[in-house]
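Methods — Computational structure assignment.
A single polypeptide chain was analysed. Its primary sequence is given first, followed by the predicted tertiary structure written as structure tokens.
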Amino acid sequence: MLNPIAHFVVGVVGAGAIFSLSVAAHPAAQDIPQQLQPPANEQVLVQVHAKGDQIYTCKADSAQFTWTLKAPDAQLFDKDGKPFGKHFAGPSWEANDGSRVTGKAVGNAPSPDANSIPWLLVTVVSHDGGSGILSQATTIQRLNTKGGKAPASGCDAARIGQEMRAPYSADYVFYKPK
């Protein structure tokens, strides 16, 4: 049986391990590469978690065959795990309130997980759907990616035009002006 001091130490160490795991899952701003930092005059609007697929199409370019990104297809969830919206071709993000943004990647960095798609910085280029939550978004970060990479092989003359889905997850952080 542990004495009361040992219980306290085990509790503190256990809590520290849990805290360390949560910090590792959501990198601090200083852990995010400089080219993915949002403009200094912006602040976090909302962070969501995406779970879905990156869809690739087998294409031929001269004599080379490659899997080319067609579109993402993912569901978005808020911090409590409740449905928030969806992510799809554009690239576009749509909240359940009908607000939608389309963006253009302006920066990228390799994921710390070599088997995952890169992290991105995206500038919002258009807004649709009225005055919902995403109507204020100006910049988006894609972080904490897991999976989603195109296969290294399997695209050949016999498979031109075929699609392949690569499961992925990521966190999307939306920013708005301060």
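Note: The longest helix spans residues 4-25.
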